[in-house]
Design brief:
By secondary structure, the chain is mainly alpha-helical. The chain has 25 helices and three strands. The longest helix is centred in the middle third of the chain and has 29 residues, at 182-210.
Length: 563
């Protein structure tokens, strides 16, 4: 009886959520509100805020969590945390007032998701797209009234993305309308003309009115602390995580020096490694040796035209290695690679697109923005050196295959809970490929080439440093110059890559922390599991078992593995 009450509360919450965010609903495969566009009037936002308080009462006061079946007790916890996240959004983040990228996401997806989808009938999708186009003028007006003083980086990124958004509405949309059912073409065209005019007006507003007053703070402060407590779903304290990252940073840098030694001595060294200048500190000595070796190796890279083919080739090599060593069972489906659309460009290196929680398709795509068309020739050379032939294999492991794709796909196959599909365990999904990456190196990937090991350690170092940088940016006062100096000097990134990383951490809070926290949880889980299993321990079985529990929060996944 309590389970039924909980499921009813979940359905009530989700219906209200999708009603407030109809574009997101379409992307997830919930189509009840496909004919609606977001209503972000102050009245409707206040109504939603009050609704959240009522829904919170529904879950906390009316549903007895401890009377639920064990699995639904976990779902109940996830739902309460999801409500807390939305309350933080309404009370502290307030994206409709302080982040124009929030509106860009709606403009970019609201029409495209309908006219390029394969659900419902073409006529119904066209009719709903027409209704959304008709509401565009109203949403633009609300955006102009609501946006106050965003951070400059938000507005600049929104302006950059908006060029692509306008290209979609002016160039791509007429073609999609021409393929729509005849009964809907006239309405679609009429509403498209009005929508384009409204969006052009909004584009001018971003550039001429919003940018000059974009003096807001991108640092989340206390809201960042609250968000991490929910997003990480870990029992590790922030203090413990910082201590581990600090120790790892030191140890990884020392390991990198050991790997560099044989190369440094034959690469026209500026000083004798065994008898360095007396005025060099330990950090200066490490920086000099590693930078010298990496600088030589970075010259070995492909051209821009060869980049995507290189990724595909590496993906196949890694998949073959997985199969030969029997590391995990390879999914029957593959992940597609393509460039990030102009509408989504900003500072994100990649965008992982999975099937919506309500979808049954197995289509996974990774959009890659590393080599966007607008990158200057001088910056392009820096980026290609960063993504050299010894670094790319690990970038592919972490981002393409297995990447988020394999852990998400397998855990999703083992998840029937809609609540968990809508709230995936991101530290697990991002930490799993890094854990596997270390295992592959020690299993002989690349035939124990030390050039590969050096670049893998550099990438591992980045995960520990990113965690510290994000905390110092959003909960401290680290400046852009300080962050870039830290990344270039201690992390051996070039200035172009470091600048992109700064932008990414500012724009997507939380994302830089998932990888390191997930890795630490995996290391702890494996240690406990190895002790429990003794001589019968199998890493393949460990990896398989971790994903067999589906999208569980880390704290519950750890308990399941120890049972």
């Amino acid at each position: 009886k309590e389970d039924e009450k909980f499921q009813e509360a979940v359905e009530k919450y989700l219906d209200a959520f999708w009603k407030f965010y109809p574009t997101a609903a379409t992307l997830e495969g919930f189509h009840k509100y496909d004919n609606k566009l977001e209503d972000l009037s102050s009245k409707n936002i206040e109504k939603r805020h009050n609704e959240l308080d009522e829904l919170n009462q529904e879950f906390v006061a009316k549903v007895d969590r401890f009377a639920l079946s064990p699995e639904l007790q976990i779902d109940h916890e996830i739902m309460v945390e999801a409500l807390d996240m939305e309350l933080i959004r309404h009370e502290a983040v307030v994206p409709w007032a302080y982040n124009p990228l929030f509106y860009n996401d709606i403009f970019s997806n609201c029409i495209q998701s309908l006219l390029t989808g394969d659900f419902a009938t073409p006529e119904e999708r066209a009719k709903n797209a027409s209704a959304r186009l008709k509401s565009m003028e109203k949403l633009v007006k609300q955006a102009k009234e609501s946006l106050q003083t965003p951070a400059q980086i938000y507005t600049e990124t929104a302006i950059e993305q908006f060029k692509g958004i306008m290209d979609f509405y002016k160039l791509a949309l007429p073609g999609l309308i021409s393929e729509a059912p005849a009964s809907q073409k006239t309405k679609l065209n009429e509403n498209m003309v009005k929508a384009v005019a409204a969006l052009e007006d909004y584009q001018n507003f971003l550039q001429n009115e919003l940018l000059p007053k974009s003096s807001g703070n991108f640092r989340l402060g206390g809201a960042h602390t609250r968000m991490l407590r929910i997003l990480l779903k870990s029992d590790l304290s922030i203090q413990e995580i910082i201590a581990r990252a600090t120790a790892d940073e030191k140890n990884i840098r020392r390991d990198m020096v050991l790997v560099c030694a044989p190369f440094y001595k034959i690469m026209d060294p500026p000083f004798d490694m065994d008898n360095p200048p007396a005025n060099l500190s330990e950090d200066q000595y490490i920086n000099a040796v590693i930078s010298h070796v990496l600088g030589k190796m970075n010259e070995d890279h492909v051209s821009k035209d060869e980049f995507f083919q290189m990724l595909e080739n590496q993906k196949e090599q890694i998949k073959n290695f997985f199969q030969e060593r029997g590391i995990i069972e390879i999914p029957d489906v593959d992940i597609k690679l393509k460039a990030v659309p102009v509408t989504e460009r900003g500072y994100s290196f990649t965008r992982f697109i999975r099937p919506g929680a309500y979808h049954t398709s197995d289509e996974y795509t990774l959009e890659i923005g590393v080599l966007a068309d607008e990158v200057t020739d001088s910056d392009l050379q820096f980026i290609l050196k960063e993504y050299n032939n010894y670094f790319i294999p690990f970038w592919v492991m972490r981002n393409v295959f297995p990447g988020e794709f394999v852990p998400y796909y397998i855990s999703n196959q083992n998840t029937t809970s809609l609540v968990r599909k809508l709230n995936p365990n991101m530290p697990m999904i991002k930490g799993w490929p890094v854990f596997v990456e270390e295992m592959m190196i020690k299993s002989g990937f690349g035939n124990y080439d030390l050039r590969l090991r050096l670049n893998q350690l550099k990438y591992l170092l980045k995960a520990a440093m990113d965690l510290k940088i994000e905390l110092n940016i959003h909960q401290g006062g680290m400046t852009e110059d300080q962050a870039i100096a830290y990344m270039t000097r201690m992390g051996f990134q070039n200035e172009v890559e470091a600048k992109q990383n700064w932008d990414n951490i500012c724009l997507y809070p939380g994302d830089a922390i998932f990888t390191y926290v997930g890795l630490q949880e995996f290391l702890d889980m494996e240690k406990a599991y190895r002790q429990k299993m003794g001589d019968s321990y199998s890493r393949k079985e460990f990896l398989k078992k971790v994903l067999s529990f589906g999208n569980l929060p880390l704290r519950h996944l750890t308990k399941k593995m120890n049972e």
